[in-house]
Amino acid sequence: MTVPERGGGLVGQIGLGAVRFFLSGNKIFTRAEVSEKSVAKTSPIEFFNQVKAEARKIVWPTGRETMMTAFMVVLMTGTLGIFFFGIDSLFGWIVKMLLGLATGQ
Predict the structure, then answer these.
(1) In this structure, are 65 and 105 located in the same domain?
(2) pLDDT tens digits for 2-22?
(3) DSSP states of 31-57 as a string?
(4) Do residues 16 and 3 lie in contact, with contact meaning Cβ atoms separated by under 8 Å?
(5) What residue numbers bound the domain in which 65 lies?
(6) 104 and 69 housed in the same domain
(7) Number of neighbouring beta carbons within 10 Å of residue 67
(8) Binning pLDDT at 50, 70 and 90, where does residue 42 land?
């Protein structure tokens, strides 16, 4: 198993080095060794065959699962909308009261 190259400064490089160290069975690889191992040569035809094979593994949700998920999204969105409206109204009322006290009205 190889780890892809990524930027990210010193902390990212140290973390990436630690991951490589543990994944390699405690052997330290140079950057050239890692890049040589991570390059896989596949033909375009083989690539598309692999894509088709992976696409066949997709399990689509049933109509019932889709409807239940959509219902839950609408329910939670509405519930959170009402909740935040109530909190906003409460804080608005508190601010009005404090401003009224500050101005003497």
Answers:
(1) yes
(2) 555 555 555 555 566 666 665
(3) HHHHHHHH-----HHHHHHHHHHHHHT
(4) yes
(5) 61-105
(6) yes
(7) 11
(8) confident
